[in-house]
Amino acid sequence: MKLATQIITGNELLSRLRAADWKKIILNLHYYALNKLERYPILEGRYNVNDLANQFADEAIRMVYDEERKWNRDAYQELYPFLTGIVDSIVSNFLKSSEFLLSERLPEDDYDLTDSSDGGPENDLIVQEMIAQIKEILASDVEAFQVFECLKDGLKPREIAPELNIEISEVRNIIKRVYRKLHDYKVKLKAG
């Protein structure tokens, strides 16, 4: 069993952070995050990828300063690799988020299914129509539809698991099925 002393905290953490070459680290970390996000062309046009990269890099730095992410000296000897690991995690969580799922992967990207009250009657009708189509797509997969409903309501996988009384690993597998089915539907729509 590893001792808690492997985690860098308190004065030692502050000392290491003060000694860091922040000008170089910030520049490299922003570039790293941008490079990571550019691997996902689906983000283009919907997000300012450069701003998103800066936001994620800055968030990683904040998480270290606030000790939200624990720096294990065995896993990461240096600060920069530790920060890139955090950026990887932030990007991964963003791409798995219900906001990204609903805004980026549904057939009609311009409509928000999580809140149909903002777009007026026309948007309400489109949202209702899309939800009806999604129900059809997921009709043969009850679990997938239940998970989709939870995602639509803004729940995260760790909240869905107890809600549906299933393991979180199973929730993640079901989310992947939902992604695939919705992606296949989107491809069919674009093909005409």
Cα-atom Rg, whole angstroms?
20 Å
Sheet/helix structural class: mainly alpha
Instruction: Please bin the fraction of helical residues.
Output: 55-70%
Q: Can you list the strand order of the major beta sheet?
A: 1-2
| Total DSSP E strands | 2
Number of helices: 9
Order of helices and strands: EHHHEHHHHHH
User: Could you describe the largest sheet, including whether it forms a barrel?
Assistant: 2 strands, antiparallel
Descriptive notes:
The protein has 192 residues and is mainly alpha-helical. It folds into 2 domains: 93 residues; 91 residues, no CATH class. Helices cover 68% and strands 2% of the residues. Helix 2 packs parallel to helix 4 and helix 7 packs across helix 9. It is elongated.
Please give a quick description of this structure.
The protein has 192 residues and is mainly α.
Features:
elongated, 192 residues, mainly alpha, 2% strand, 9 helices
Record the SSE blueprint:
Blueprint (H helix, E strand, L loop, with lengths): L6 E2 L1 H10 L2 H16 L11 H17 L5 E2 L6 H18 L1 H7 L15 H19 L3 H11 L4 H8 L3 H24 L1
Antiparallel strand pairs: 1-2
Helix pairs in contact: 2-3, 2-4, 3-4, 7-9, 8-9
